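Worked example 3 (structure in, sequence out).
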């Protein structure tokens, strides 16, 4: 498999891990550039899923813990928001294959934490910033974040690319 993305360059080891995973799973990547984040890169497959390749084991482990909690609580949707499902993964390659979701959705649990009791996370303290980002949609987003907290997931990376209503 050749990964080409119009002038974008990716660390060779990330592309190598993507290629190994795709080869092992028999998956083809759909045409188009990947999504690039600080902690991972995401490619859409031809099977209506996405492959997320993490840069570091620490962020993979944190996000993996969230997906384990979501599976444990059988959470696929929350307050009307679709949540990607963990389809397959490879802990050595730091790769997750997730179901593709359409709005309304919540994505990217890399900065979330799982805890039986709240960590130093105060939704009221950061509400002003989130209100500014989401405007009139903030009450719906707040209900989603509160519902996540009720199952022990604390989500701090709320913005319009990770949480989309339309």
């Amino acid at each position: 498999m050749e990964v080409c993305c119009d002038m974008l360059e990716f660390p060779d080891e990330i592309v190598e891990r993507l290629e190994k995973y795709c080869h092992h799973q028999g998956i083809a990547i759909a045409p188009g550039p990947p999504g690039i984040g600080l902690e991972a890169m995401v490619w859409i497959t031809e099977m209506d899923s996405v492959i997320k390749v993490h840069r570091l084991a620490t962020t993979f482990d944190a996000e993996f813990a969230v997906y384990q909690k979501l599976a444990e609580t059988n959470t696929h949707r929350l307050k009307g928001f679709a949540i990607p499902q963990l389809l397959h993964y490879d802990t050595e390659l730091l790769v997750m294959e997730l179901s593709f979701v359409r709005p309304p959705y919540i994505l990217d649990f890399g900065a979330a934490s799982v805890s039986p009791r709240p960590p130093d996370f105060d939704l009221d303290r950061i509400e002003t910033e989130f209100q500014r980002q989401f405007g009139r949609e903030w009450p719906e987003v707040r209900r989603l974040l509160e519902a996540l907290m009720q199952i022990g997931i604390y989500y701090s990376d709320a913005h319009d690319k990770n949480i989309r209503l339309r």
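Notes: The CA atoms of residues 13 and 55 lie 9 Å apart. The radius of gyration is 16 Å.
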